[in-house]
Amino acid sequence: MNIRANIPAAPADPATRITRQREIINRRVLAGEIDSLIAEHGMPKARAKILPLLQDALNAGRAEISARLLKRPSAGHEMAAAQSFLVDQLVRLIHDIAVHHQYPVSNPSSGERITVMAVGGYGRGEMAPHSDVDIAFLTPHKTNSWTEQAIEAMLYWLWDLGFKVGQSSRSIDEMVRMAREDLSIRTALLEGRYIWGDTGVYEEAKQRFFNDVVAGTDSSFVAQKLAERDARHLKMGDSRYVVEPNVKEGKGGLRDLQTLYWIGKYIHRVTSAAELVDVGLLTADEFKRFRKAANFLWAVRCHMHDITGRAEDRLTFDLQP
After folding, report:
1. Counted domains in the chain
2. Is-contact 272 14, C-beta < 8 A?
3. What is the pLDDT of residue 109?
4. Is residue 13 part of a domain?
5. Domain boundary among 175, 194, 214
6. How many other β-carbons are positioned within 10 Å of the β-carbon of residue 35?
7. Which of 46, 96, 122, 237 has most Cβ atoms within 10 angstroms of its Cβ?
8. What pLDDT score was predicted for residue 7?
9. Spatial contact of 117 and 205, defined as CB atoms under 8 Å apart
């Protein structure tokens, strides 16, 4: 398999930097411990010992990020990127367990290849403590018995760790077809980011997405996203002045900023919001102001998730103090 083991876990937007990453999670140390357990006990007996190891790593990582947020309460982007980094490392470990230990293939065929791609907000490298983990498993052809087993094994690990997973398992052709038909799938893939697995499959999927899905559809995408935004505003009250605002979906919230970025990325084929300055869509000052607003909203959202212990995006009266 074409597996690239040294890809940095940087968030999609290079303007965000995660400090002291190994204090959040040290993937190489964990990988060594997992290999030792498998060597000693074999699969599947080692699974019962590996799961608590991963759970402890997840809990410790979350606790470290929460402690950092309390020390720097307004560091929204950094905390959102740190959450994404933590999940990245766990997904990589889980992929390697499933592919190399649970269902190893000594001489994989062209169809026995998988890439794991983050999509949606996770693909953007931004997550609150209890955000869904949105993942696309991509294969070069229709799934076969090996890819189905490997994907199922990865999902069971994620579910057992308590993640709420939004997932799809598709061939590249199926991805193209469904992205053409469904605006939400297309938008999620627009934020697609490689996590782990076969890099060749990822690069082909990325090229096919922009060439076969995005090309020639700029105006329709913009119209549909603006209509979607208007419908969401009506549903949420169509006012910035709400006494218990939803910081994600409400008017003037994170989703409005993301819609702006989606439109810019779609038209200009860039991979991060920061690049919209380079192509002239935003001035440096505009991007700075947008980013400052998003940083504040991400900080509030992360605090709400930590305080409530769940995916809470509505700033209710009891949380406002």
Report:
1. 2
2. yes
3. 86
4. no
5. 214
6. 15
7. 122
8. 37
9. yes
Residues 210 and 226 in one domain: no
Cα dist from 201 to 2, 5, 116, whole Å: 9, 16, 10
Do residue 222 and residue 158 come from a single domain? no
Distance, CA of 218 to CA of 223 (rounded, Å) = 9
CATH number at residue 32: 3.30.460.10
Distance CA 70, CA 204 (A): 42
**Distant-in-sequence, close-in-space partners of 33: CB < 8 Å, separation ≥ 6:** 53
pLDDT tens-place string over residues 291-304: 999 999 999 999 99
CA 149 to chain centre: 23
Neighbours of 47 (CB within 10 A): 18
Whether 139 and 285 map to the same domain: the answer is no
> 36: domain range?
21-214
Nearest alpha-carbon partner for 151 in 141, 140, 137: 137
Strand duo 115-118 + 165-171: pairing: unpaired
Strand pairing category for 165-171 and 133-139:
parallel
Q: Which tokens is 295 given?
A: 């940083």
Other C-beta atoms lying within 10 Å of the C-beta of residue 93: 21
Write down the pLDDT at residue 16. 61
Using CA atoms, how far apart are residues 221 and 22, in angstroms rounded to an integer? 40
Q: Cβ contacts of residue 96 below 8 Å, gap of 6+?
A: 31, 196
Q: Residue holding tokens 């990589």?
A: 92
Phi and psi based region of residue 120 (left: phi greater than 0; alpha: psi -120 to 50; beta: remaining): left
Give domain status of residue 10, yes or no: no
Question: What is the number of residues in the chain?
Answer: 321
Alpha carbon 190 to chain centroid, angstroms:
12
Mean pLDDT of successive 10-residue segments in the chain (321 residues)? 37 64 97 97 95 98 97 95 97 97 89 94 94 96 94 98 96 97 95 95 96 95 95 86 92 93 92 90 94 96 96 95 90
